[in-house]
Each structure stands twice: as C-alpha cells, then as structure tokens.
Amino acid sequence: MTYLIDTAAAVEKIEQSGLSRKQAEAIVSTIAETGDLVATKSDIDHLETTIKSDIDRLETATKSDIHQLETTIKSDIHQLETAIKNLGENMKTQITLRALAVGGIMVALLKALEYLGV
Predict the structure, then answer these.
(1) Are 11 and 25 within 8 A, CB to CB?
(2) Ranges assigned E (strand) in 27-81
(3) Cα atoms in the 13 Å half-sphere on the side-chain side of 93
(4) Max CA separation in the chain (angstroms)
(5) Which of 11, 64, 72, 114 is deepest in the core (most CB within 10 A)?
(6) What single DSSP character describes residue 66?
(7) Per-residue pLDDT tens over the stretch 48-101
C-alpha cells in the first residue's frame, strides 16, 4: 500500500521524541491509514477544474434553454394576438349582422303597422 507520508521516517522521528517503537508504529499506522481521507492539492485542483467545467456547461445549457423559451413565448404571444384580433373582427361582424337583423325586423314591423293602419 502507498501512503502519503514516509512511514519509516515518521516512526523514527516519533521514537526520537521518546516514545517506544511500538507506540511510534501505532501512531504512524493510524495516521497513514487515514491518508485516503485526505485530499491532496492535486485532488483539489482536479475537482476545481471539473467544477468549473460543469458550471460552464450548465451556463451554456441554461442560456440555450432561456433562448428557446423566449422564442417559444414570442411565438405563443403572436398566436394569441392573432387569435384575439380574429375574435374582435368576428365580434364586430356578429354585432353588425345582428344590428342589421334588428333593423330589418323594425322595418318589417313598421311596414306591418303601416299596412294595418296603425
């Protein structure tokens, strides 16, 4: 197994401080076994590069999504405006036809009243 520290040198330094070889080996072994829990500068640099790349990719995708939504919304607004305009024109036509029909009925009633001598 490869460790982040030189275990033999670490044991020697601890022994020189006054602890027994057995104690020094236990301490170094414990520290060395936790080495996979420690992030190296290289690990952090790699993560930073990966995160920056992910952010750039997400930013590009988000801008693309926003552009597509804007295009869709503009199209939908145009369709709604056209539909509203058509409804307005249809309403004008219906009102005009009904007004003409009412006018025609009134003329017919007046003629009928005239015919009846009223």
Answers:
(1) yes
(2) none
(3) 6
(4) 137
(5) 11
(6) H
(7) 999 999 999 999 999 999 999 999 999 999 999 999 999 999 999 999 999 999
